[in-house]
Design brief:
By secondary structure, this protein is an all-alpha fold. It has 16 helices and 3 strands.
Length: 367
Amino acid sequence: MSNQTGKGLENITVASSSISSIVGTTLTYRGYKIEDLAQHASFEEVVYLLWYGSLPTAQELTQFNETLFNHSTLPNEILTLLNQFPTHANTMEVLRTCISALPIYLPKENDNLEHAFHIQAKISTLVAAMSRVRQGKEPLAPKKEYSYAKNFLYMLHGSTPTDLEEEAFNKALILHADHEFNASTFSSRVTVATLSDLYSGIVSAIGTLKGPLHGGANEQVMHMLNEIGKPNQVDTYLSHAFENKKKIMGIGHRVYKNGDPRAFILKEMSQKLTELTGHQDLFTISDAVEKIVEKEKGLKPNVDFYSASLYHALGIDTSLFTPIFAVSRTSGWTAHILEQYQNNRLIRPRAEYIGKTSETYVSLDER
């Protein structure tokens, strides 16, 4: 390949952005280190930061939270649609379909920021409702006094989460909110660069996130942990995986070579929650896998690895792991879509042709 191309666009800079940055093992949102935001901020503050470029004042945050809450109710038609899907349907396909249908039942506003509020507010309600409908339960409406993280867990389980559960989920939402030009973010920008609508950009992103090499990796991590089963089975499982060149999901990252900073934070929260909920084996297995793979392959966990045991300890079904990723990442997708609209140019790369040349047509009867 020529010097101007890279497989998977690796190491190719395709645009400028002021939303998030990855330098070495440092991830920042609008210049704020992810560790600082995860320690001190609410998810709502981070969404505001990503969309507007600065942290909100107390008054701005109050207004922002109120607007989010006012947009959080799902149209009755979407609830009807949810009840029509088979309970075994792929959750990302259900989510993709419902987000695609959403604007059909909403006022036809020509305001991208208004669309952003609609999607960010409703996607949390939608994923929780999807889960409850699949269990034969009635969906729950959010409570105005609850945070975004607390509301999701409440709407999912029907009970008020503990402070630690709310803290853990809030951190997870922040850590998944944005990650520079990842595959789903890039696909959303490609879509809206044609001047398609914001909903179409989010649907493109959800379809991209669905893949097991992107958002679906956290589900695969959970399947791996269940397959290992017990801490004393880690060595046997990994030896077999190495022999058969089986990919260990949640380990390694295209960008981070010395460790994903988000994984460090999620590991701490996973340890606390699994101990509290009696799922210590999950953390013990995860920790053992991390150490062995790093020793044998020199690879470290990414954000998907410890989110699996964390979500399980929060009582979240594995089928919801990737939709929850979408709940968080909608904030980043939306920020990038708004940025794309502000300084738009159709994204139309070229390909280096490597096929045959100088071919001559041969008539059908001579072939």
